[in-house]
Amino acid sequence: MKSRRDDLIDTALRLFYKGGFNATGIDKILAEAGVAKMTLYKHFPSKDDLILAVLERRDEQFRAWLVAEMDKAGPGARAKLLAMFDALESWFNGEAFKPLGFNGCAFINAASEFGAQQHPAHQTAAAHKQRIVEHLEGLCAEAGADDPHDLAEKLALLKEGAISTAHVRGMPEAAQMAKSIAATLIPGG
Description:
Shape: elongated
Number of strands: 0
CATH architecture of the domain at 55-185: Orthogonal Bundle
Order of helices and strands: HHHHHHHHH
Strand content: under 5%
């Protein structure tokens, strides 16, 4: 059974992801979650605290999903790295994270809405992106890259570009375009 806190986080995640962090009011979250304001503030002293909890939840969900999708490619690091782009394509097409679907990246959105790099939401977004790079770096080392960190950063850049292109331009095929570039960079191809 989900706790009230989890209900609030899940409701806020859905609403923030669709409507934006700043544009989505607390009253809308309370109405959708079916809780009183006192319950919200018992768990989250401020809206900013709720936003951080939402970003932490999304980080856990997204990374667990992405790693699991990459692992489905089998034991080879190269196959896992390339599978990242297939996973992105399924997300872009609305096949992952139902009922959220695809409304861009919650972390890119947060970094945009909270532009100051010292803002906690911006820092949480940056930490998420760094954790992805670290995971990619381990796979790049397994794949035999001469400079695993450099290759991980390049693959992360392709991933981020695909996400932005899919969202801004409505091009889910950006994932496969990025994959074709990645295939030329990863050893063993």
